[in-house]
């Protein structure tokens, strides 16, 4: 009876070890090989754990430049930590399998597993099942390291294409990027009526970002070469520019701007969904946004003072702008905080104006008629404003 229980225990440990190895291998395949976004518990938990450590260190930083310097290592360190976790799970899994298959001690099984995984040749058991495990463990270890090496060029290729557009935006939008600045500069060079190619180029950029930033889950956290640049503030600036021009600038309507906005908010929503960030996909044009009417009026006044032709009906222009902005407002701010983006107008500056961190974390409560209203500190927000109802 005792021998039977001991045999069952060894079989159970062997199966648990095989499960651990299989889980690590599938996680590596989802991360490195699968060409689509897929939820992976290993990657998610490792990135969260490393982020917690970086957040502790970041608290001591008193300037954004210092915070950016700290966070620049977050994505690379998380990838290396993920590799370590995979290798550890594989070694422990094979340790359990070697212990369940041989008569040696747990220490001997651990030694054989480590020797096989790192191809050291320090220890082995000369039986066919054990040799078979040794070969498979060595092959899996080499495979995961090779996948990581092959994964890095894909990351940096997508990173380079992303940053090329972000860098070019600085010549058009200034630093930090501003939608108002873009419109003023294009007005000065007489280009306001010829923005179709700009919208088309950024529509393509949004499509590429959606694919790369969900299939390569670490890519959103790779920071731009310059501290004041960020892919998310660039995205917000382009979307706000298109929304402002559609709503308030008195030039012929360009349908390509509509397509650019749609491509942008679909992209940001998919990325937010990949990171499990909540948002309401069924928003109405009258739902609240993080831009106040006062800010909108100040932007329009600045454009008008610079000679930009503006529409006369400011109230309708505000309603149109809010109707466009509401599609991407919540996800834009959420991703700006997630990536710790540099301060930029109407994007990452929202967290400094409104103390509750991450405006995307509104508590959404159903009101009469089943519609969702937004609440902060128990007070409802007016549609199109952050001013609470009194």
TrEMBL record:
<keyword id="KW-0812">Transmembrane</keyword>
<feature type="transmembrane region" description="Helical">
    <location>
        <begin position="132"/>
        <end position="152"/>
    </location>
</feature>
<feature type="transmembrane region" description="Helical">
    <location>
        <begin position="106"/>
        <end position="125"/>
    </location>
</feature>
<keyword id="KW-0472">Membrane</keyword>
<keyword id="KW-1133">Transmembrane helix</keyword>
<protein>
    <recommendedName>
        <fullName>Ion transport 2 domain protein</fullName>
    </recommendedName>
</protein>
<feature type="transmembrane region" description="Helical">
    <location>
        <begin position="74"/>
        <end position="94"/>
    </location>
</feature>
